[in-house]
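[job 4417] fold queue: 2 targets
>>> target A
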Amino acid sequence: MSNNLCDYDFELPRELVASRPLPDRAASRMMVVDRARGSVSHMAFRDLPGYLGAGDLLVLNNSKVIPARLLTDDGRVELLLFEQLGPVRWKAFARPGKRTRPGDSFAIAGTTARIESVDGEDGTRVVQFATDPDLENLGHMPIPPYLGREDDAEDRVRYQTVYASVAGSVAAPTAGLHFTPEILAKLPHTFVTLHVGPGTFLPVRSDNLDEHRMHGENYEIGQAAADAINAAQRVFAVGTTSMRVLESLPAGPVAAGAGRTEIFIRPGFQFRHSHALLTNFHLPKSTLFVLVCAMAGKDLIQRAYAEAVREKYRFFSYGDCMLIL
């Protein structure tokens, strides 16, 4: 296993980045990576039910993306809200940083914001609003920067799973974007909640993975979900967010409850609750690419990704998916 970030890199042609979703949510391709056989096969997402047997369970993240990207009235400053600290108090990232120093105020999202403090390590701002910012009418969906475009009305619907119900994420749990209500209704499933934080956008800045600090994310598991997970023969984590919830729990029976996790899953990690993973294709040198390497082995994942590039799979949030068995 390697702690060197450079070992988790790969070449990706820009044209393979899916900037828009397919018209049909369920029309994506699905690469199947079988760890026991060391094999890679090419299927469709609609083939997923055939890989579940008696006693298997999908665990999905029902967090809902909030329109958390805000622009000041003069368009000179952008805030990305990512954690609510109080009724009108948030943690946020800001661009450009030089215009958002402690004490600065500006008109934004139908109210006034004042920068309370700045974390010198990662640039996090604590922002106090005069009244609730009007996210629904004046906020933008925080689509990833690598899409290379502004958000639009389509993203309000498609950068959201059909089962999203608990508001709080600033990035979609993208493996769930493939599901339609009809497909989900046919599969045994349960929900957990993890509010996806800004770490999904942030690059790993250290070449040594031991030095990378993950942003904390809040999660919750209800009693019905805990019971279903404990009764399952195999647990299929739908997305790395669901897996981060499952693997933040101690070994043994899963208990209902809430918590906060900074888990960084990387090669050498001993999986306790996840037997399979459905996930999209991730950015090179990202914590999510490291996670899939931890589950399936770096050599097998790098071979699978090279094949995905050759076969012109669609990458990232609006792209195709991979099932690791």
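>>> target B
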Amino acid sequence: MNLPQERLLLPFDHTDYETTEMYTDFASIRGHQHVKRALEIAAAGGHHVLLNGPPGCGKTMLADAFHTILPNLTNEDMLETFGIYHLAKENRGFSKRPPYRHPHHSASAISLIGGGTFPKPGEISLAHKGVLFLDELGEFSRKALDMLRRPLETGEVTINRVRQSVTYPSSFILIAATNPCPFGYFQSHERYCTCTQHQVKNYQLKASGPLLDRIDFLLTLKSVGLVATETGETSAIIQKRVENARCMQKERYAKGGLNGNVPFSLLLEVSRLTTEEMKKITTICFEEKWSNRTQAKIIRIARTIADLAEEKTISEAAIEEAIGWKRMTSDSQNGTNERIHNG
């Protein structure tokens, strides 16, 4: 039986941070080294992550710590974020810390996306330049989740009404967490799951294929006991690497943006992939029956991995690691589908 992990709660060392909220430091989280690496890549390149695992395995703790490795906002982004909160009549001072929004799974589509009789920004706009954490993803309505697809791709949301049409920015990093079934212990060795095959299938189909296709990392977590005592890196150390990687992207893209959301044509133009590297990625995607979107996703992740290593071009090692992440995602999805099919 695994005991619950203890949280080391540390305040941010930012003099302009205007709240007294405490967040989990990465150093206090035992195990989950591969998840920490994926979250570092996600923070550096603006990639989206889905964490799947039984209750108590650390999904919420990791999502809570993710916010601590994001660099401060620029003055321009800080003012833009303040303006969005002012429109929504939400409290937020002139803080350089990125927003961190975690709406409850009972939230309506309008509260998530924005709208109303007199349209105002929703949670995805309030998370602009920051993090949107959706805990218990399988409990959200299918309609609300499907409405996330276009904002995830374009970085903005348009709300149409009879008298007006408004567009709000919504460039955020999505961190989602879900249990494998309604009870939470499907295929777990800790407790016996009482869910039927039909219940498991319906629960996991809440997030549609097109939505999952826009998520870069689909990670399966297992419970970690107190046996894992290794000391991990602090959030401050990881944050420094993320900040350096983002600085490289700022210099690379004249109009701004991160590897995860810049136009793919621009990414290809500046990434300087060799003919052999492109051929390798294309061949593997063909053999694995991966889509063109997946091919683009591999290149985006590889570019971020190279930035974290402070490399001007995408190295062979970066490509291999990016392909490895995609294979891990595919193995997780295929294994789950096979277990559901076999009952």
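[job 4417] complete. Note on B: The radius of gyration is 20 Å.
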